[in-house]
Amino acid sequence: MPNHDLRPVAGPDEATRRESTRNPYSPVMILVTLIATGGVIAYAVFLLNPENRGDALPYALVIGAEAVLVTHALLAMWTILAGSKSPRDHAYFAAQQALLDDRPELDAPLLLHGREVSVAVFITCYGEPLEVIGRTARAARDIHGRHSTWILDDGRSDDVRRLAADLGVGYLRRLSGGGAKAGNVNHALSQVKSDYFCIFDADFVPSPEFLVETMPFFTDANVGFVQTPQSYGNLKNFVSRGAGYMQTVFYRFVQPGRNHFNAAFCVGTNVVFRRAAIDDVGGIYTDSKSEDVWTSLMLHERGWRSVYIPDVLAVGDAPETIEDYTKQQLRWATGGFEILFTHNPLSPRRRLTLDQRLMYVVTATHYLTGIAPGVLLLVPALEVFFDLRPVTLGTSVATWALAYAGFYVMQILLASYTLGSFRWEVLLLSTASFPIYHQALVNAFSGKEQKWHVTGSAGRRSSPFTFIRPQVYLFVFLALTSVVAIWRDLNNAQLSLATAWNLTNTAALGVFIGVAFAEHATRDRPKRVAARTGAERPAPVPTTIPEPVAATRDRWIEAKGLS
């Protein structure tokens, strides 16, 4: 009997419509980017003008630090403007339509060029809580399209083995721990034979549509891997919000721009590889803890193509503590600097295109932009204690402020526009992170082995102050400098730019130190509560995890902010 119900079908809600119809490369976005580029150039001209040159030492510090920031800002603007073209073309959409052959079954074969291809989904874990691993494994198992799902357990846990059996997914454990995550994946590749394989970190919950959106790119026989962004669903405190939002511009605009240069790189999770490409480079790179970038570099040197799509197809967890953030950033930055010192992309021995060389130089030197703020923090003190200025005494505060605003204010406005609002956590966390990147530079130069650390892994937490001693020492120094600066200005009956600059730096570091105090105060709170109430030791997490009240898809949608 025909259905004559003419009532309108409910469409997507407002948040869903806004997300699906938003154009990241809107005319306003392009205009803001162009204005920001102009501001960068104007600031560089101001600093390099001989008439504005001040005393040698502070001027050298400012020029050195700002040269890094200006260069990277200009290259970022260029990359952003190059990314407006979508990597999806007619061939992609034709392949996507034929991928499941219009079959609604979740286990329908995946077809490329009319032939079924095999896909393995790997979940790498190393001591994460069972509920985290189970959440991801359940979602990976339910991805649309026929595939096998495997938990790669480097933690050698019998509980994880039983969890895999309960969820009906494969389980692999290796006897040695060499090569960290890369070694774990390579061991799995020696056991599981498939045409393609995906990698998800234990805390990244994939969308059911992950394969449907990524696999059609492989109709191009030159595509070695397809990468999707890291997005976070736990932006609930200062550290997680700062760490999560800090990467938004990179994933929304920089990585898409790198498609234009065939230089988008793997970020270690939410990625699908062609097995033949990885075999061509001898497996996932194991001589660095940043195996993702290094593997990408090896693939590009062998002539493989990379594809990045900015669609959020998996949601995970950003670091929530200073310890987790410090160890994550130290590992990432060390891997980048290792490329600079041991595999310089500008070397004639590198088999890269000129575009790729430039993009990988940006990657290898990116974390120098994190060291530069630490250098600039010291400049006001040179004026306060030694009357040494980076610009001439005749340069007015208004002229200096205008040039400074042309660079920094426009960079903040650009970031705020891409994020939807100003995120002060990003600014403060970036200012306070310079000791991490300095240590990474030392580690990479000296060849010091970097211990593997899993973001958000279970275990006893150290005090956050264990990881931020340089910031604490510098805060005390800046605070004392501020006292001297105010006393000097009172005697001169005039507020100086150095005093305002130093007070701003002191306040920024002060907020970060306050976050550390709050984290330290709450670190052992559950233990103190248990001691007061006489509670017993908590029962172990059951090996069989019940289905959550909210389905994985609902959690994924909620984490994207679409609910």
Protein traits:
single chain; 563 residues; alpha/beta; disordered N terminus; disordered C terminus
Q: Layout of SSEs?
A:
Layout: H1 14-21, H2 27-48, H3 56-81, H4 90-99, E1 110-112, E2 115-117, E3 119-125, H5 130-141, E4 148-153, H6 158-167, E5 170-172, H7 180-191, E6 196-201, E7 205-206, H8 210-214, E8 223-227, E9 231-232, H9 238-246, H10 248-259, E10 271-274, H11 275-280, H12 291-301, E11 305-308, E12 314-316, H13 322-342, H14 354-365, H15 368-376, H16 379-386, H17 397-419, H18 424-432, H19 434-446, H20 469-492, H21 497-523, H22 525-533, H23 552-559
Parallel strand pairs: 3-4, 3-6, 4-5, 8-11, 9-12
Antiparallel strand pairs: 1-2, 6-10, 7-12, 8-10
Helix pairs in contact: 2-3, 2-17, 3-10, 3-15, 5-6, 9-18, 13-14, 13-19, 15-19, 16-21, 18-21, 20-21
Largest sheet: 7 strands, mixed
Overall structural class, as computed from helix and strand content, comes to: alpha/beta
Number of helices: 23
Helix fraction, binned, reads 40-55%
Total strands: the figure is: 12
Average pLDDT confidence is 85
Give the distance, in angstroms, between the N- and C-terminal Cα atoms: 36 Å
Spans of at least 5 consecutive residues whose pLDDT stays below 50 are: 1-10, 527-557, 559-563
Radius of gyration: 26 Å
Q: Strand content of the residues, in percent? A: 5-15%
The spatial strand order of the largest sheet comes to 5-4-3-6-10-8-11
Instruction: Based on Cα principal axes, name the global outline.
Output: globular
